[in-house]
Amino acid sequence: MSLSFELLGNDSAARRGRIATAHGSIETPAFMPVGTAGTVKAMLPQSVAETGAEIVLGNTFHLMLRPGAERVAALGGLHKFMNWPGPILTDSGGFQVMSLKELRKLDPDGVTFRSPSDGSEHRLTPQRSIEIQRLLDADITMSFDECTTWPVEEAAAAASMRLSMTWAERGRHAFTERPGYGLFGIVQGSIFPALREESVAALTAIGFDGYAIGGLAVGEGQELMFATLDTTVPMLPADRPRYLMGVGRPADIVGAVARGIDMFDCVMPTRAGRTAQAFTRRGELNLRNARHRDDPRPIDELCACPACRNHSRAYLHHLIRSEEILGSMLLTWHNLHYYQDIMRGLRGAIESRSLGHWIAAFRSEQSLGDIPPL
User: Fold this and answer.
1) Model-level pTM greater than 0.90?
2) Domain range enclosing 340
3) Which residues are catalytic?
4) CB under 8 Å, gap of 24 or more: what pairs does 2-7 form?
5) CATH number for position 195
6) pLDDT, tens only, 20-42
């Protein structure tokens, strides 16, 4: 295996680890801000790093369409292109392709689709997805898979999962081993335990540097998601990183870490920042609401991000109602900082074996809600 993972400690099922890549180390549990098209929206690369993020996510589908993987490679790779010196994980493009519906045609060897931007025809196969991610110079490459829809019948979920396992093996053969670079397989099977077990067995037989759990956070709800994790995570190799794709809200992340997940990504904190939503210790705030217009307090008095250190809720409310770009920038920075605060807290709690107390305090604060202004 080309990617190094060191397990530093645990508290029950929760794990504290470190992943060493060609572009630096990642302390886990880790949250990866989503930089789909080579940018974390409304953030400078150095601002992303200042939140505490050590790795960001890029996307094969979007980058292959614009500006093109070969162009990025000619310009020095994605790290240089976007001025992010740290590790990068690239999603394979499977989720985006499958969401095109009327614009794509699936066959056993891959997917043919039309670009939603200009209608041009493209072909994506497991091998081509791996090649694109190599051209981008991704530290962590994801296997090309078919993202199972929700809701789904068990027979359809089985067929989808088995196609993904075939593609995973083809992609594994196409991957070029290099020190500090790794390939993750993606466990599919929807909410069906037997299918998840079959998927894990197929992927571990092939052998990957890490294992992702896909096909969750697609509408099944937290209870079913956690139940699926309860059956799936214990089957995964203990000496490899575990990545829950596309999750999620803070409570989802906390619950998944307690179940043994090491890595997360989600557009939620950045998308929320662009739509006036702020995540806080006491729940979510909508800074567009009129009740904030005369409030001199910060979003969160215990937060050290620039939005909370330097600006009032009243000012942020003004920026949002005035449609000033700075409002999106500050709220995005705050949300990413808050998510990284959660990860820092989780890592520290696992190290001190006090995770149960940390989670109880987290849930208690979330349940209190925001303190109204005097």
Assistant:
1) yes
2) 273-368
3) 91, 265
4) 2/177, 2/178, 2/179, 2/180, 2/181, 2/182, 2/209, 3/139, 3/140, 3/180, 3/181, 3/182, 3/209, 3/210, 3/241, 4/180, 5/209, 5/210, 5/239, 5/240, 5/241, 7/238, 7/239
5) 3.20.20.105
6) 999 999 999 999 999 999 999 99
